[in-house]
Design brief:
The protein is of the alpha+beta class and 188 residues long. It has four helices and eleven strands, in the order E-E-E-E-E-H-E-H-E-E-E-H-E-H-E.
Length: 188
């Protein structure tokens, strides 16, 4: 449409673009991550989702950190019996909760890799955990992806006991290093 070409009666009707930015805040938050015997995972945090995508972002961060598909991760939140989180306000939920979710997943991942390399005769026995990665539910040697084992097999070999991680994340000096803002755009 050409400028000034649209009208509603005598009034001009316009198209526009608006942008928004708001500084994010960060508060302490806690999270837990559990890798289940079937190779799926559950992440928990006592935060809430007020329509801002908290379930989605917790699932995405956990899946990426654990080397799983998002369909193999379930996010649970909204219960004060779960690990503590701040209120939703001041654009701080994502900035506060996701570092805790990532740290909890890293803790569980480290324990799982330790189990994968500890059993004599296992496909990855004796390999340093730093030489391994997890992709699509498989633990594999970075240098030779044919040396691998499914997460579920590692857990089954170790009695089918879930592997758990817990973490707390607190604000640091990131505000001194980075601009931290929520943002938005509206086109009309």
């Amino acid at each position: 449409m050409a400028p000034r070409s649209m009208r509603n009666g005598r009034a001009l009707v316009g198209w526009g673009l608006a942008t928004a930015t708001y500084p994010t805040n960060r508060m302490p938050a806690q999270a837990s991550a559990t890798i289940l015997p079937d190779g799926t995972a559950v992440v928990r945090c006592g935060t809430q989702d007020i329509g801002t995508g908290t379930y989605t972002i917790m699932t995405q961060v956990a899946a990426q950190t654990l080397g799983l598909s998002t369909s193999a991760v379930r996010a649970e939140l909204g219960d004060s019996a779960m690990p503590a989180a701040p209120v939703s306000g001041g654009s701080m939920t994502t900035a506060s909760v996701t570092p805790a979710v990532q740290a909890a997943c890293l803790s569980a991942r480290e324990k799982l890799l330790g189990l994968a390399t500890a059993t004599r005769g296992a496909p990855l026995f004796g390999i340093a955990p730093s030489e391994l990665t997890i992709e699509n539910g498989w633990i594999l040697l970075r240098a030779d992806a044919t040396r691998r084992e499914p997460l579920a097999a590692v857990l089954a070999r170790n009695g089918g006991v879930p592997v758990e991680g817990f973490a707390e994340s607190k604000p640091g000096e990131e505000r001194q290093k980075y601009a931290m803002h929520s943002f938005g755009a509206v086109v009309r």
